[in-house]
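Quick one, tokens below:
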């Protein structure tokens, strides 16, 4: 049940605030290839959309591959360099944030450096200031509810009065597990060739929308 006037709106970052998912998955595919591991951009989207970097290591360990210690630092550097030169905000998100009356914050699977850079590069950081919460701050990342519950606790909001905006199956599942309403957003470039409406509705999203101009402006 979506609250008429949520006490808190939690935004995922990648794919909701910034159009980063294709960029980051390309970086992942490229860096894995440098270590002799094959993973297409499409596979990266399917496997790791909305997941933390820890999920990458878990995936390969389950398949008998151990990523070298230098993998994650190299991936992080590649992503940050790529974002600094090419990252764009989701169209219309600035307008949404400018009129949003409810308290709001970010809860992302990405690490804090990446989230901060993403918001700085796209001019969105002033809308959130230090209200940034990441998977680094909790024991279990999405699809576990820990991150969203942590963000709500820090923001002083009840889960039942919280609305989450998410673009991934794991994010939608995490929000529902936390007892929160969740809207699925499918306006990122990573959904151009995928049926995001069906994907996020099946995951349990209370609503799915594709343009920020359709955001609930009275929230």
């Amino acid at each position: 049940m979506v609250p008429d006037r949520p006490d808190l709106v939690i935004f995922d970052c990648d794919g909701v605030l910034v159009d980063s998912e294709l960029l980051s998955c390309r970086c992942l595919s490229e860096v894995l290839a440098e270590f002799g591991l094959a993973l297409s951009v499409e596979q990266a989207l399917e496997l790791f959309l909305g997941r933390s970097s820890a999920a990458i290591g878990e995936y390969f360990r389950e398949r008998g591959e151990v990523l070298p210690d230098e993998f994650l630092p190299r991936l992080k550097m590649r992503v940050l360099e790529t974002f600094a030169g090419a990252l764009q905000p989701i169209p219309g998100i600035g307008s949404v944030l400018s009129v949003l009356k409810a308290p709001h914050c970010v809860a992302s699977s990405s690490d804090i450096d990446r989230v901060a850079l993403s918001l700085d590069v796209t001019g969105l950081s002033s809308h959130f200031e230090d209200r940034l919460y990441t998977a680094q701050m909790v024991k279990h990342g999405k699809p576990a509810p820990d991150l969203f519950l942590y963000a709500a606790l820090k923001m002083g909001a009840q889960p039942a009065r919280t609305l989450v905006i998410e673009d991934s199956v794991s994010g939608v599942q995490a929000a529902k597990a936390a007892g929160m309403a969740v809207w699925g957003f499918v306006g990122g470039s990573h959904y151009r060739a995928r049926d995001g409406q069906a994907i996020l509705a099946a995951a349990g999203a209370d609503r799915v929308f594709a343009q920020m101009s359709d955001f609930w402006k009275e929230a």
